[in-house]
Amino acid sequence: MPRRRQIPETYPSKIVSNCSDMVVLPSMKFSISHTDSQSKARRGRIETEHGTIQTPVFMPVGTAGTVKAVHQYELETEVKAQIILGNTYHLYLRPGTEILQAAGGLHRFMHWNKPILTDSGGYQVYSLSATRKIKEEGVEFASHIDGSKHFFSPEKSMEIQRFIGADIIMAFDECTPYPCDYNYARQSMELTHRWLKRCQAYLDEHAPLYGHTQTLFPIVQGSTFKDLRRISAEHISEANAHGNAIGGLSVGEPAESMYEITEQVCSILPLQKPRYLMGVGTPVNILECIALGVDMFDCVMPTRNARNGMLFTADGIINIKNKKWERDFSPIDSSGLCSSDGYYSRAYLRHLFASEERLAAQIASLHNLSFYLWLTHEAGKQIEAGTFYSWKNKMVPRLQHRL
Amino acid sequence: MPRRRQIPETYPSKIVSNCSDMVVLPSMKFSISHTDSQSKARRGRIETEHGTIQTPVFMPVGTAGTVKAVHQYELETEVKAQIILGNTYHLYLRPGTEILQAAGGLHRFMHWNKPILTDSGGYQVYSLSATRKIKEEGVEFASHIDGSKHFFSPEKSMEIQRFIGADIIMAFDECTPYPCDYNYARQSMELTHRWLKRCQAYLDEHAPLYGHTQTLFPIVQGSTFKDLRRISAEHISEANAHGNAIGGLSVGEPAESMYEITEQVCSILPLQKPRYLMGVGTPVNILECIALGVDMFDCVMPTRNARNGMLFTADGIINIKNKKWERDFSPIDSSGLCSSDGYYSRAYLRHLFASEERLAAQIASLHNLSFYLWLTHEAGKQIEAGTFYSWKNKMVPRLQHRL
């Protein structure tokens, strides 16, 4: 098994636990190699100290330091993930920052030596709407695990993200719900802008802990109000960060509204910086938003839906629990995006779901993540070839088809 | 990933669905290469049409056509399983014999091209003590899934095992509980003996379905009564099968009683046939019973205990949920029996269990199965080297140590 044995060898053998006297670390680099003539799609690469990310890219979500049901070496060799997400809120609660620091950061703790991005905790705290209080200083909330009280501020979020040590870290923001009252959306956006300053100030004063750069992405908010989105996109652009994110979408608004806001915000955000659309989405959402100029995506959909028996393929959607697959002994996906696709049959996978066996979620998660990574990789190849727009228009109806 | 791609190529490309006019298939072969001078331990090999099994051997349990939380290719390349078990009762209920037949048998259905052994359903039916009725003809029972009524007879069990198509199939028996009334144990043993004749008669009249041999192992019963065990072992020996099993142990009796009965039965069963001790056991049980002349073992303990956070190692037992491992960033098992052992730390695995993440059971199951396979493989090497007995006596206290 040479591929697995190699990993520890390339793994950093020492960590820098106190960097107060460190030299300036290299900045994340982004370069665009191709732009599509018929859309705003771009093909690029992000260079980090943990490796290069080809964009457009989908980032699997590894909430608590694990992409559910998938081994790290499977992410690397099967799924071909280039970067994964961690959730600050979850990692703060378990295993907690003390253990993460003792481990030398999340990369070492979970044995993942490629890039990691962490959210700020803002979204999870927003999801805990019944138990949280938002103030100027920050957010008080109760843990979903034991009800214990906690307080996140922009400074606290940055401190936790320093302990986690992700390559890309997110500004602490408020994610507004949908629908949202205009005045609330405006006040919330302004709060997110003030919080950004406090995030930047904290990072200026506190060096990273593990000897590699952590790049802050600020987040555009403003709900579905175009004037607020314009103000926010201009404000965020002025922050002159190495990358920018679009938050507050994929929270229940119609897809058309998501596309409209994404298009508007992308037209304002600087061209030469990567754009990350947070929490999006279906395969169709991803292709449409690549066409609008988005470079980076994350979503729990491929793994969560996998656990419920929904498989995404280039020919459409399979509900593998359906009786129609009971005697279908053909491969899960004949295009064979990962080893499991050709290894197991649809009938076998259906049986595993019917029997509530753990292997069901393992196989389906591997498949769906491999498909999402294939989709964004293929989009990049189509952009290079100048065929992205027609390919995208051909794929969109196919991807929505129910097999 | 060449190792995975190879598997479909070596997979049988056609199946024989109607074998009524087939020539006689080759018999399973067993040969003993070494016997231990200080104990009854033997080193041997079983040859089947799906490959060779080195004995002593531990057989992972794949209840419903999957060893819980473990991929088939991991069983092959990581765990180094030589043969796995399927459960007739579970496979009969799901996916059912029609689908198994349409798939071309269990090997093809689950994509496992090495040997398989199936139990007869007798043990599971015995476990359903509240809902089953045992008669001379067979056993009526209610499904644990939907309460539907079913009837297993020796003929029905053989018919189902023909549809499953395992290389080694078990006679339909009654497994008595512990403790057991003497008269009940005697009557039950006699019933098991009469049922054996019916199993043999069915198999004589019905050829295997998929073009490979299915070898019947009869089962010695008799509870913990030495005179009944002697009668049963003699009766089973006279059946002149290619292998023999010891049932009705590991059902709650003291370990000393299990060893005493195993020793007695092994002294009666033919030397030149493999001996399978059903449902046993802990690592210590396995080493002690190898010393008594047992060749084959199966047990849910490595996988079930893995899901509860108990890890078996050559240095003792780890309860990975214990707080003492919270900051132990050393490998799960430094002896590195499988890739995961060196890949993940104890602290990380503990975190996965604390967070109830699926990867926890996946890692722990891989580890425990790899350990059980290592243990029986190492026992074989020690028998070859003539050092088994002293090695076993050194290992027994270590294996019971709580780390």
Indicate the topology.
2 copies of one chain form a homodimer.
Chain A (H helix, E strand, L loop, with lengths): L1 H9 L18 E7 L6 E7 L2 E5 L1 E3 L12 H8 L4 E3 L1 H6 L3 H7 L2 H5 L5 E3 L3 H6 L5 E2 L4 E4 L6 E4 L1 H11 L3 E3 L11 H24 L9 E3 L1 E2 L5 H13 L5 E3 L8 H14 L6 E3 L5 H9 L4 E3 L2 H7 L2 E4 L2 E4 L19 H5 L2 H9 L3 H28 L2 H13 L3
Parallel strand pairs in A: 4-15, 5-6, 6-10, 10-11, 12-13, 13-14, 14-15
Antiparallel strand pairs in A: 1-2, 2-3, 7-8, 8-9, 16-17
Helix pairs in contact in A: 2-15, 7-8, 8-9, 9-10, 11-15, 11-16, 12-15, 14-15, 15-16
Number of helices of chain A: 16
Class derived from helix and strand content of chain A: alpha/beta
Q: What fraction of the residues of chain A are assigned to beta strands by DSSP? A: 15-25%
Biggest β-sheet: strands ordered side by side in the sheet of chain A: 4-15-14-13-12
Polypeptide structure, described:
Two copies of one chain form a homodimer. The first copy, chain A, is α/β, with parallel strands linked by helices. Helices cover 43% and strands 16% of the residues of chain A. Chain A has helices spanning 2-10, 72-79, 88-93, 97-103, 106-110, 122-127, 154-164, 182-205, 226-238, 255-268, 283-291, 301-307, 339-343, 346-354, 358-385, 388-400; strands at 29-35, 42-48, 51-55, 57-59, 84-86, 116-118, 133-134, 139-142, 149-152, 168-170, 215-217, 219-220, 244-246, 275-277, 296-298, 310-313, 316-319. In chain A, strands 4-15-14-13-12 form a five-stranded parallel β-sheet. In chain A, α8 links the parallel β10 and β11 (215-217). In chain A, α8 (182-205) packs parallel to α9 (226-238), α11 packs parallel to α15 and α14 (346-354) packs across α15. The first copy, chain A, is globular and about 60 Å long. Chain A starts with a helix and ends with a helix.
